[in-house]
Input
Amino acid sequence: MRWNKISDAVVRRLPLYLRVLDQAVRDGDKRLMSSQELGERAGVSPALVRKDLAWFGEFGKQGVGYEVAYLRDELLRILNLDKVVNLAIVGMGALGHALARYSMDRYQRDSYYQLRVAALFDADPEKIGEQVGNLVIQSVDRLEEVLERERIRMVVVAVPASAAQEIVDRCVRAGARAILNFAPVHVTAPEHVYLAHTDLSLELERLAYYLED
Amino acid sequence: MRWNKISDAVVRRLPLYLRVLDQAVRDGDKRLMSSQELGERAGVSPALVRKDLAWFGEFGKQGVGYEVAYLRDELLRILNLDKVVNLAIVGMGALGHALARYSMDRYQRDSYYQLRVAALFDADPEKIGEQVGNLVIQSVDRLEEVLERERIRMVVVAVPASAAQEIVDRCVRAGARAILNFAPVHVTAPEHVYLAHTDLSLELERLAYYLED
DNA sequence: TAGATTGTTAATCGATTAACAATC
DNA sequence: TAGATTGTTAATCGATTAACAATC
Output
């Protein structure tokens, strides 16, 4: 089952719903939730919640709402998070470290969090061999080899701008299907690879716009 | 001069243009740039480049293009980055550290980068007193006092989800005008404060959607 | 002048909201 | 049954692209 043509804007909200539902399941305070309440907690209008979910199926009951545990499981399935997803982080600067720690901690703590950090890479000989959680930072020279051997198809790129495009190219050749680029540079990938960009420095800079004089 | 009503989507692209122009100024390879080339380097269509810039004035010359140094300076002014902007980071976990290091390094290195990290806060007694660059992590108890004294109006929130709303509220009361929240939770602020949210775990989770089965 | 490229208006595209029949 | 809430269609809103007259 593939739901192509689903817009980015929709996909972007699914993990938000997932989080609200998972929280509700944990708290165990309610078995059912309306689009009204789900929207409120996620910061999205109720109509949009219903429309987003309707792209993937009919998960609710009229007059009743959505069963939280069921909808959470469906969202996990839709997001491919119902089974372990291996993930590599390339570039173990401060940001790479932060992302690695966060994901590792969460993978251990939350049974539902199935994003597993499977490999860490850096180009700096000083960093290679360093232990982070239960992993050792490897030389980026072994990038292709390890991605292929471990069947890693999701990669976080946190290298300097000057190296980003080359790393992306190499990940693509090694079979990556989804790449999240944190380097402050516009990079490209072939159509069949999903490439997203999160640029923290751009976020900081745009924020300054809203400081009135 | 205030250009209210400029959409978020437009403001979000300005730092992108700024980066391309600044790079061109540094390289010194061209004095002029067309919307075509600026767009190509930024990953934006030429028409959109022209439209975005036109919200703020007439910066180009027909048949010629934009003067890179001039347009860069105008963008710096529009983004309020033509003078030092003080910034506080609350929550010095791995992500807070990464952001602090990044901004501090860049402030030292790039003469045009005027986002100055002016204060660091954490609630953990273990971390308070720790040196990061030329700053010492302070107790979050002193948040209001320091923000007011140092006239800090831009704040990065990198605390755990459970503390985020309280920290945002306190920043608002202490005069913050622009807040960037990294905590994985939906928080709110009054109308007069600009609040943005960057959620790295949501980014990672949505990425998994694009891994085909 | 001739060619190029802006600034701007109109057309298109896409995403969100409103509304409501279906139905639990 | 009566009340509530979904799933879905139509209306609205906003952002991007296309086109071109103005003009350097």
Observations:
- Chain A has eight helices and ten strands.
- Residues 70 and 194 of chain A are 28 Å apart (CA to CA).
- Chain A has a mean pLDDT of 95.
